[in-house]
Amino acid sequence: MAYSGSRFQSPLYVGDKTGEVEKNQIKTFHLMELHFDDSDQALLNDNLYYTDNFYDVSYDSSTAPDSGANTYQALGKFLTFGSVVESTSIKVNAITVGISGVNTADISDIVHSNVVNKRVVIYRTFLDSNNAFQTNRTFLLFDGNIRNFTCSEGPETSSINFSVATHWANFEAQNGRITNSSTQFFTKKYNSTEKFTEDRGFEYSSVFVKDVHWGPTN
């Protein structure tokens, strides 16, 4: 399990220059969880575990939806994400998570599945003096949800970029429905598990640039 204390407590910060973050050189890698498992989705119904390390890592995370130790698949340089910025104020902290070298089948599954609002958890682990992985040197770095994503394909490679934000994103979100087909298809009917999968009422909503007024004018 991950170390439960602050990232600025032992063994990271000791105060005598022996802590991991106090050294002149540190060696780290990251573990990432994509909580994609959803019984309502036929294509993308497995949780994904990745690491930017160059060999697979077995780790029992407290946040993983699958119990016990899970194998984090080594992607090396093919897994990237932006800098994590922390703040004492209540505001949205967001990063971009990039996965390259993705095959066409995986891109198709993501594009045709509902991955928005799915949870993404990232851990940072500090290697010891023997370059060995230790669970008590593994700390929660980021915990958020997918806001949107982009896919790009080329003749030799392809990539997926997820925009992931903390739960404070809901406090800055504008009220109201998003009028496009993608969100409508995954909207559940009132008091039912059935979705509007065939509703194309918003198919041409992008051509409207004016607000839609609803209800009486006074």
List its salient traits:
218 residues, mainly beta, disordered N terminus
Write structural notes for this entry.
- Helix content is 8%, strand content 28%.
- With 218 residues, it is mostly beta strands.
- Strands 3-4-2-1-7-8-9-6-5 form a nine-stranded mixed beta sheet, with helices on one face.
- β8 and β9 form a beta hairpin.
- The longest helix has 8 residues.
- The relative contact order is 0.15.
Question: What is this structure, in a nutshell?
Answer:
Helix content is 8%, strand content 28%. It has helices at 104-111, 169-172, 181-185, and strands spanning 28-34, 48-51, 57-59, 70-74, 79-81, 94-100, 119-126, 138-153, 158-165.
Class derived from helix and strand content: mainly beta
* Distance between the ends: 59 Å
Strand coverage percent: 25-35%
Low-confidence stretches: 1-9
Summed over residues and divided by their number, the pLDDT gives a mean of: 76
Gyration radius from CA atoms, angstroms: 21 Å
Total strand count, please? Answer: 9
Largest sheet: 9 strands, mixed
H/E series: EEEEEEHEEEHH
- Which of globular, elongated, flat, extended, rod-shaped describes the shape? elongated
Count, helices: 3
Helix content: under 10%
The largest beta-sheet arranges its strands as 3-4-2-1-7-8-9-6-5
